[in-house]
Design goal:
Number of strands: 6
Largest sheet: 6 strands, mixed
Shape: elongated
Helix content: 10-25%
Strand content: over 45%
Radius of gyration: 15 Å
Number of helices: 3
Strand order of the largest sheet: 1-2-3-6-5-4
Length: 136
């Protein structure tokens, strides 16, 4: 179930409520856990953290995971440019989709958005989304 959820999170970051704005702004440079060594901004790196599985008495399960997304942009373009990417990322909270035949819907809650910091030639922000899914 965790692997299916992982794949659906990736899909959500690209699809983002069918608008695809986040992926388009990044030229589809969204990486799972680690970006390639010479990647130039803008790009995003995401990872699943703190996965919790809760069993209910009716046989159903609920899975929650924090999805940490680092957004990296060129410092020369400034904070205003960076905030455009964060606005698009925030739209992921509107995503809801069927994950697989045995899993109901995957939904997101926005826990924190864009703790922005300057690092060398980049602006980097860390945002956290909570992904929730259940087995039916």
């Amino acid at each position: 179930m965790i692997k299916k959820m992982h794949e659906q999170i990736k899909t959500a970051l690209y699809a983002e409520s069918d608008t695809g704005e986040f992926a388009a702004l990044l030229s589809n440079k969204i990486y799972d856990t680690i970006a390639p060594p010479d990647t130039q901004g803008p790009f995003a790196v995401w990872s699943m953290e703190g996965v919790t599985i809760t069993n209910h008495t009716d046989g159903k399960e609920r899975v929650e995971a924090d999805v940490v997304v680092l957004v990296v942009t060129d410092i020369r373009k400034g904070v205003s440019d960076h905030l455009t990417y964060l606005d698009a990322l925030a739209n992921v909270r509107n995503y809801a989709a069927t994950v697989a035949s045995s899993i109901d819907r995957l939904t997101f809650s926005l826990m924190s958005i864009g703790e922005v910091q300057a690092e060398d030639k980049y602006i980097v922000s860390r945002s956290v989304l909570r992904a929730t899914s259940g087995r039916i």
